[in-house]
Amino acid sequence: MLNNFLEFSFSNKDLNNQLTSLLKNQALSIEEKTTIEELRYISHKTTGIKDFKKIKEKFESGIDKIQKNESIPYENQITVREYGILSDFVKVKNKLKKYSDFNCVKELYEQIVEVEKMLDLFENIFLDEQKYKNGDIVMYDIKLENQFKNIKEFTKEQKGIWYFLGSKYAHAAQINISNGQAPKLSHVYGQYESDIIKFQQAMFSDVYRFDASKLLTKEGIEKAKEAFGENWEEEVNKIYQKSQQEVYETGLNSGFNNLENSSQKRLQSGKANLPFYGHKTKEEQDFKELSEKFYQRDGAEVDDNIMICSEFVTRSTISSLVKSNEELSKELGIDNALQIPFSKYEDLNKVHTQRLIDILMEKECITQVRKPKIEIMLFKEPEKAHYKTIMNMTKIVEDQLRVFEDSVIDNQLPGQKHEKFLSTFASTVRDSGVKGAISDVVKHDKVHEIIKEHDDTIKRDDSFVQKSQQSRNNIPHGRV
Hints:
The protein is 61% helix and 7% strand. Helix 5 packs across helix 7 (103-129) and helix 5 (80-91) crosses helix 8 (142-149). It has helices at residues 2-9, 13-22, 30-45, 49-67, 80-91, 93-97, 103-129, 142-149, 156-164, 199-203, 218-228, 232-254, 263-271, 287-295, 309-332, 353-362, 373-378, 382-411, 416-442, 445-458, 462-471; strands at 137-141, 169-176, 184-189, 191-196, 205-210, 366-368. It is α+β, with helices and mostly antiparallel strands. The chain starts with a helix and ends in a 9-residue tail after the last helix. The protein contains 21 helices and six strands. It has three domains: 1-127, no CATH class; 130-378, no CATH class; 382-467, no CATH class.
């Protein structure tokens, strides 16, 4: 009987809702509540069971092709949501284990164990090939994160971010790498967290590289070139990245773990976009004092420990720049080598995710980091679908133009201008190739972005694949 109930519970939304209602019954014992919660969790996490086996096969085939240096057809790639389905089943594995002798669970459990091993392998390849640096800024994309988690509608807060702030970023974090270890994602997510970054976090995020050399003063540029030679930009960034590491290590030892996020403070940061609230303070701030207070947190008051995610990244960035400026100015023998990209009147308490990116973009001191190669190879992207659609459309248009041109000539239709236009346009298509056809026919800026994205990402990186092949034999199968 329990076997039938378990099978009935898989991906059963109605049952899940009934179990949720049942949990409100005050007469239930602790043991009964625990059992119901477990069954509800199994029911929820097995959403997508109908497609599980097919997704598993595509994922397994994709990893195999990457390791064999073979391209993956678009139709055989997986989506963010499909990766989320695989992850959900792995999360429910331990709860299914005690039912693994039941017929309906046994095969599924064995398949989940196989998927877990594949995800571990994929995770380790990602960590082995990642190129993150200290201070990289990680921005969670609302839609991609929701796809991964199977959240179909925006929350109230997400709606505010998307529609009011005009931003796709719901969360900000920063990369911290200590003594050659795996990169950690440091952020205030509810409370302060600093854990090794997972592939799924990279998958639903945009990552931005901070370039401190763009903030050098005019004198700083001249002296940096004299001191460091042709690699002056790289050397300046090494100083900044070292400062980032020191800020995080000091902060972790002195009280970062006491930091907490606040929904009320996030709301205030959004309201600051309104003219009668604003993002500025009345008095000028001392960045040196603020930075020391940020990472040397001895005696920090309760209010100082309430910090939204993007405020945390902002204060971390300012603190690292202050330290970098002191070291660099001393080494170059000048008073001030680096500028701070934030105004001294910026209310750091109200720097929301989009404002953080907008300010740094305006100062041209961040650039977006390319997506992980294994993600480009294995995952479907909207741009690839658009590209394929446009390519097909262009081929049809090109064929029709040739027919029209032949028709104009063969039937000797009147109108020299009409004939000349068709002839010239059709020859342009042939001479310019597909890209030229797209440019002339579609007339949309996004097309050029799609083509560039396709050209940049669809090419295989042989050295990457070869390296992954050489390293996979040394990859442990335990979870990172």
